[in-house]
Amino acid sequence: MYMENSKNNRATVLNAGKQADGILPRISTVHTEPYANYILRLLFEASPDGFFAMMLNQPVDWNPRQPDEVLFNHIYKTQQITLHNKRSIDLNPGFKANLLGVSPERYFSYDTESGKSAWKKLLNSGWLHMETSEEISPGMFIWIETEFVNLYDNSGKLLGCFATQRDYSHRYSEIDSLNKSNSDLSSAISAIGDPLIMTDANGVVTYLNYSAEVTLDLNYDQLINKRITEILQVDDPETGLNLKSILEQVKSGGLNYRFSNKSHLKFGIKETNITGVVSAVKNEEGTHIGWMLLLRYPGEVLTEVVEDKINLARMKRHHGNIESGYWEIDLNEGKVWIGDDMFRLFGIRRVMKDDPEELKYLQTKMNEMIVSEDRAKVEQAAGDLINKFQGYSLDYRIIDQETKRIRYMRSVVEVHKDASGNPSMISGSALDLTWYYDEVTKLSFFKELVEAAPVGILITDPSGIITFINKKITEITGFEPAELIGNKPSIFKSGVLPPQFYENLWRVVLSGEVWQGDIINRKKDGSHYWDSASIAGIKDKTGDIVSLSAFKTDVTRRKKLESEVKKQRDQLDQLHKEKVMLLENLSHEIRNPLNGISGFLDLLISEVTDYNQRKLLKSIKHSSERIRNRLDAVTDILNIEKDSWQINLKTSDISNVLSEVLAYYREMAEEKGLRFDTYIQENLKVVTDPQLISKAVGNLLDNAVKFTTEGSIRVEILSPPVEGGEIIIKVTDTGSGIKKESIDAIFRETPVISSDISPIRSGNGFGLKVTKEILKKLGGTIKIESVPGKRTSFTIILNPAQFSEQNIEEDDDKIKHFQKIIAPDKLHEILIVEDSRINSDVIALYLRRICTVDSAKNGEIAIKMAKEKNYSMVILDINLGEGLSGVETMKKIRSFPGYELIPFIAVTGYTLNSDKKAILEEGFDFFYTKPLDISKFTDFIKDLLLPENAEH
Questions:
Q1: Contact call for residues 684 and 653 (beta carbons, < 8 A)
Q2: Residues near 565 by beta carbon (within 8 Å), at least 6 away in sequence
Q3: Count of CB atoms within 10 A of residue 274's CB?
Q4: Beta-carbon contacts of residue 319 (< 8 Å; ≥ 6 apart)
Q5: Most buried residue, 260, 465, 603, 815, by most Cβ within 10 Å?
Q6: What is the sign of the dihedral through the CA atoms of 133, 134, 135 and 140?
Q7: Which residues are paired to 107 by β-bridges?
């Protein structure tokens, strides 16, 4: 149903001949109240969105051009929620289903300043949009979108406002995190119950908590940016010092000053005794930057302050509310307190103030005024209070003694308990709701709320024929009411979505559930827009659907923004993939030539006898090793990116595991003129991955050698004298040190670009990031301690009981298998398939004393040679350039008779753990990465071919 069109004063005529499509059955209902009001009430209660009205106790004149601060404070304190639906309770869990009577002051109690600013915006503009979060269970939040719109009477006076709320948590995929530590610290300081004041180095107040404002009876603006010695006068008779001299003494001496119990505080015209502490505040460099005063009261003063706070709380809750009253009973002391407003509210003359019998007198007079039909429920509530100490909230009617008219009242009574759980106080309040009841009984009340709603509302009959729309629907779609009433919502169809979409929508709605989602709809001008809709059936008392309601919001702008964000994310993902691919290719391309260079250097070093030449060759070898370490770091980063770490756990003696890496970096350190000291406790065993822990410690040593130009490097490996204690690996250097912000950046999850060109530890921190990831896999931790310009210590902590042993010795088992198969007395020939001549030559040179070596530069040649000879072993590169790959070549050769039993070894520039797994799964028996440690590789080949001569 659509009410008369106020714009052209023309009633909308429904087309009686238009038949329904039969989507829903027709339902006939009989109502005892006007149909429009009935439907709107059902709509209000059944809505999937939250609604509430926050009304004033009487209309007021508000002029946005001339804001009245006194009037604003009155509105902010007395405007109250007088009506809400069930959904609004779910969307405001902080009020525990007790929304009635909530004022803006209570609604924004978590942030008074922002709340007042928001409410002024609402009063001046007539509309307010908010996005907030609510904690519905520990650690679980929902995000709420709230829109307020002002309500006015026919003369333009402000009646209150109407609010709609919607849960839009499903839209949020990410919520920016704040700096939690700073937030927690700020909250903790604010919550201190004693007055806390902070000043800068000049004694100017920069911060004070709420307790300081209450204690000094001054607001924040009166204290902030004022010199503290001009606001407060403090004298300590025991030392003879005043506040100014105390501040100077604390600053110069650096020690805290504690006021004696006889210290005297004066602020304005008020004076009191005080105790507390004055402390100096310094920055990291030790420079004085201000003072902090934490004040406390002696016991006798504290009692008076507590009583003042109680009265202040009463005033804050009830001051200015001319249509309410308040009372209290102290059950422990038998004291009664009744506010004058209670008597004024009921029109009863007060004649017995401070008399213990006054409460009974008030109750008798009030009971005489209650309408006879409501007395039973009032007496029942009072009986439960007396017999069961059970509070209540109750609406009832009274007959005004002066006007003889019916007035609607609400009484709220609460029972307060002490720490032992025993009732200690009863408090009660009364509120006049006459205006509210008068308004909600008007036929136009709900219609005015719906018309003013900031979301589009559309109602259809059970057949899907539109019977009502509000103004917002016209704003969103461009269709006038006359063009929609009598039509179906299909008028909005864009033709973009498939029929199955709408079939699913109707199936959900007709099942009694709420359908919520985004639809591409069409406006009157033919343009498309995104419609965020909630659609639900409105049921009568028997449970039959009598209408369908839809709540609609134009979210086109949000959708465009989401599309742009997705497009940018896709572009970043593509750039990231390209970066990973580039690093993989770069690593592979560098490792191939580096393998040959490194191998020939090892050969030359072993054969050159001239001391200076050997020294030069070793220097070149170290440079190649540094390149290899950088490449290994890139490989580690790629392993982290692809989460392809492989862990082989076994019980290991930590000193044996680290002996090789310690020897390598000892040589590097001594070449730089550094002292390299070690302290290693014997027989320290731990279940770990020897290769990964060696890599982690190597990263720390590489960092230490790189950034230490003089002094020493010390390595300590020990376990504290506690049974089952942790194993500690500590690397300390006398290098340039690391700034605190750089330490934070090293372990930050996202990279940080810094413009700092300081020479202190200027590195990208990749090795340390890799170390952190390794230790996460191994159940260990790392911490950094540094004094810039003096020393840095890295400490790895391993838990011996973190893992059980997973003794993975697959390579050893394979070696034993092939040793049994390969004939020991045979003159062995092996085939190397490698497109790089230098790589095949260097391997051949090292294996010449063990076996005969043939080389093939591609897969086709290798297959031909394998047909002509029976090789004992085949060593293949994976990337052989054009033609067959190493994997394809291996599979063809293995298919030849006799080759199914010999070992195939992959020697490749592919280094990722995922690469190794994939290559071994293709059929290779062993996997080695370039550049080879040629000496170890030679020993491995000797183990396979000549087991009786192998050196272990």
A1: yes
A2: none
A3: 25
A4: 77
A5: 465
A6: negative
A7: none
Q: Which two structure tokens, joined as six digits, stand for 714?
A: 């010390």
* 562-572 residue pLDDT tens: 888 888 888 87
More confidently predicted of 596 and 396:
396
d(CA 289, CA 227): 15
* pLDDT, greater one: 28 or 586: 586
pLDDT on residue 18: 34
Instruction: Give the distance, in angstroms, between the CA of residue 794 and the centroid of all CA atoms in the same chain.
Output: 30
Phi, psi of 839 (to 5 degrees): -70, -45
405 DSSP 8-state letter:
-
User: Which residues on neighbouring strands pair with residue 727, listed in sequence order?
Assistant: 798
Instruction: Locate the DSSP E strands across 304-360.
Output: 324-330, 335-338
Tokens of 865: 């040679």
Residues contacting 879, CB < 8 A, separation 6+: 588, 835, 885, 886, 908, 909, 910
Residue 716 φ/ψ, nearest 5 degrees: -120, 130
CA 415, CA 428: separation in Å to the nearest integer? 9
Region 800-820 average pLDDT: 65
Average pLDDT over residues 637-660: 74
Map residue 430 onto helix, strand or coil.
strand
What pLDDT sits at residue 80?
A: 93
Average pLDDT over all residues of the chain:
78
Q: Strands 288-296 and 275-282, how do they pair?
A: antiparallel
pTM, two decimal places: 0.37
**The tokens of 778 are what?**
């191994």
Q: Band of the pLDDT at 761, cuts 50, 70, 90?
A: very low
Give CA–CA dist 793/774, Å, rounded: 18
Give SS3 for 271: strand
**Partners of 140 in the beta sheet?**
137
97, 172, 533, 868, 890 from 893: Cα distances, Å: 78, 56, 65, 11, 5
SS3 (DSSP) at 387: helix
What whole-number distance in Å separates Cα of residue 828 and Cα of residue 922?
25
* CA–CA dist 273, 266 (Å, integer): 9
- SS3 at position 824: coil
The number of beta carbons lying within 10 Å of the beta carbon of residue 549 is 25
Contacts of 249 by beta carbon, 8 Å cutoff, 6+ apart:
241, 257
Beta-strand pair 712-718/275-282: unpaired
Tokens for 295? 């004040």
| Cα–Cα distance measured from residue 479 to residue 475, given in angstroms and rounded to the nearest whole number | 8
d(CA 619, CA 621): 5
In whole angstroms, give the CA distance from residue 797 to residue 179. 28
Look up residue 923 and give its two tokens: 């059929």
What is the spatial distance between Cα 539 and Cα 949, in angstroms, rounded to a whole number? Answer: 91
Classify residue 689 as exposed, middle or buried by CB count within 10 Å of its CB (0-12, 13-18, 19+): buried
Amino acid at 862: A
Residue of 655, 745, 721, 664 whose CA lies nearest to 698 = 664
Task: Check if the beta carbon of residue 394 is closer than 8 Å to that of residue 431.
Answer: no
DSSP per position, 850-904: TSEEEEESSHHHHHHHHHHS--SEEEE-S--SSSS-HHHHHHHHHTSTTTTSS-E
Beta bridge partners of 538: 547
Q: Give the H or E element holding residue 685.
A: strand 685-688
State whether residue 537 is helix, strand or coil: strand
pLDDT band at 218 (very low <50, low <70, confident <90, very high): low
